[in-house]
Amino acid sequence: MDGFSLIIGGEKKPTARFVEIRNPSNGTVVGRMPRATAADLDSAVTAAESAFRTWRMEPDAVRAEACRKIAATIDAHAEELAHLLTLEQGKPLNGLGSRFELGGAVAWTRYTAELALPVEVLQENEAGRVELHRKPIGVVGAITPWNWPVMIACWHIIPAVRTGNTVIIKPSPQTPLSTIRLVELINEILPAGVVNVVTGDNELGAAMTSHPGIAKLTFTGSTRTGRKIMASAAGTLKRLTLELGGNDAGIVLPDANVAEIIEGLFWGAFINSGQTCACLKRLYVHDSIYDEVCRRLTEYASKVVVGDGLADASALGPVQNRAQYDIVSSFVDEARARGGRVILGGNPKGGSGYFYPVTLVADVDHGCRLVDEEQFGPALPIIRYHDVAEAIAKANDNAAGLGGSVWGSNLDGAREVASQLECGSVWINKHGAIQPNAPFGGVKQSGVGVEFGIDGLKEFTTVQTVFC
């Protein structure tokens, strides 16, 4: 349980207070999170500001090579990090679990290392030369969630340092340990103060959003918290990248080959036990194939093993924390009370872990929380529709707009439906397949700005126009 400290200015900093971190599979203590104070945050800002003065001046090639080395170091320690991640987050080591997440962290880091933002020449003629330069912003505050803590930490840290910024990251108090270890490894490569980690409760995050020494804030989490961050950051006019909650809709068209899409539907909805912003969270199925989709999904889902993340057979783990477990339970119970037909799951067995069974709820519609709100857990509502226009209207009838998907055999028809969905990303015959070269972000109340690729890299810069 020892060995986890704040990292400020390249050094481990002890704290007087700690919080026990428990394995959601069985409740055992897996480590202690150090609780940072406001003074610790000030120290981290001072260290990051000092490091920024020199890091920003490093040649682009030096920063790119540093990111390559970070990727190699993460890869070399992937098994250690994956094991720690499973202990504190609950997801299985195997399948689409912790080893998968570490593979994603390495892939995103390697890809981002090769991106660049060279000077753009906007004009060169007898009237003169105009250049567009992109410059680092300064100290970046990063606040990350508990669902994909290592990969999302890399999404925040790597583009920031690649463009010459310095970072203070605050991981979720539910899953801080793997991020602390990640930052330890990063500090073996980068100069002291370029990446710092402070850990604590929500008050620490609130202090970051208003701190005058932090120039940009990047956050992944709920829309409710995103609103608070935007309000708090207004006092210092921080730049913001906010990837917020989603309530992604999937529309299964009447021409879909049901047998071929069932596996994709299941994992689009239940990867990481449904604890993913861009999971499929509402499934609209045409009346002509509704019963077949329900039957085949039930058959497939009933064979998926839910269990302790360290067990080789486990394909899905527990819900990460009690609060989220209670949300999922209450949403399913309300849907059942409103006439929803629970065709699989819905009756947790209890015990020491937060295990909620894979749950499918048929014959529900708008007006219950399982459909209207983000459940962020292993429960999927299946909504019957009769007309495609009706399904599109219902899919768009939500404040969230992160992702969406369309499932059908006629690709031209599927693309036409996809073009009408109000979301930042849309997939055809798959869901949630993000990649490092494609911008990812939400519309409506699912976020501000984008991540990944060149567009995501630009989020960590300001523009300076030079007239010659």
Automatic annotation (TrEMBL):
Residues 17-466 form the Aldehyde dehydrogenase domain. The keyword Secreted does not apply. SUPFAM superfamilies: ALDH-like. Transmembrane segments: none annotated. Keywords: Oxidoreductase. InterPro entries: Ald_DH/histidinol_DH, Ald_DH_C, Ald_DH_CS_CYS, Ald_DH_CS_GLU, Ald_DH_N, Aldehyde_DH_dom, LUC3-like. PANTHER family: ALDEHYDE DEHYDROGENASE-RELATED (PTHR11699). This is Aldehyde dehydrogenase family protein. It comes from Bradyrhizobium sediminis.
